[in-house]
Amino acid sequence: xxxxxxxxxxxxxxxxxDRPKALNALNRQVLTELSQAIAQVAANTALxxxxxxxxxxxxxxxxxxxxxxxxxxxxxxxxxGELGHSVLDSLEALTIPVIAAVxxxxxxxxxxxxxxxxxxxxxxxxxFGLPEVTLAVIPGFGGTQRLTRLVGRARAKEMxxxxxxxxxxxxxxxxxxxxxxxxxxxxxxxxxIATTIAKRGPLAVAQAKHVIDGGAALQLKDGNSIERDAFxxxxxxxxxxxxxTAFLGKRAAEFKNA
Length: 258
Ligand code: DAK
Hints:
With 258 residues, the chain is α/β, with parallel strands linked by helices. Helices cover 48% and strands 16% of the residues. It has a 6-stranded mixed β-sheet with strand order 1-2-3-5-7-10, sandwiched between helices. A 4-stranded mixed β-sheet has the order 4-6-8-9. Helix 4 crosses helix 5, helix 5 crosses helix 6 and helix 9 (202-215) packs antiparallel against helix 10. 4-(N,N-dimethylamino)cinnamoyl-COA binds at residues 22-23, 25, 62-67, 77, 80-81, 84, 105, 107-109, 131-132, 135, 137, 139-141. The site of 4-(N,N-dimethylamino)cinnamoyl-COA (DAK) has 24 residues, from helix 2, helix 3 and strand 6.
């Protein structure tokens, strides 16, 4: 892979979009490589969390590749949109938690990539924006939907209608980023959170993610119903017995993902 790096650090995987000369812009090759990296993560049952970040000093991802899109026909725009959606859907569908480490510009497709992660930590240098209207298009990789669900309609409309960037502090203020870290501490913070998650019961974490995401589109009673089923199912796992036995025996649990 030329532009996407996948590194493993014990149970934690790190995907880096690494095309710094174009501020990590997403062209078809980058999206295809990202899709391959996500498939490798999905197939590796030893992994417990994934961190997504950008290569170089300036950008997380500065958007879809404007040079590649400039002369798209309607049909090519549709195909490109389908590619972007399918890659971000596959990222969102990973059973392990996915953390976005936003280390610089996260614009257009870059914000959309971060939004497909479970949550976002931002460096002080991060800038978020959906500037598509400045190019006379709209977000095409799920930004109108995922941003709206996360920060609410009015905030999403303000960002998408103006196309203006917001800094990391404002992103935290509106609930887009969870925390703002000094640039040098961003990855360490993300790894610390990923390491904490990696110690927990992996089937339980996966079920929690499944139920939170699955319930978001449901009525409260239906969401509670899938939670109840998932809760009960976990009592059929060896890890649940281990977790509760270890607690009662005053020792650390050793989970087996089973
Ligand atoms: N695409 C291609 N190249 C990009 C790029 C991008 N999004 N962003 C930056 N670059 C390139 C620049 O062209 C420049 O290349 P060279 O001139 O050196 O060859 C290099 O990266 C460094 O950028 P700058 O020289 O501009 O660096 P500055 O520090 O001066 O400025 C910046 C940084 C982030 C403010 C600026 O680069 C910028 O405004 N970039 C564009 C940001 C942007 O508008 N992003 C949103 C892209 S639109 C759809 C599907 C998807 C989408 C829409 C529709 N359909 C299916 C219909 C999604 C759209 C987007 O994401």
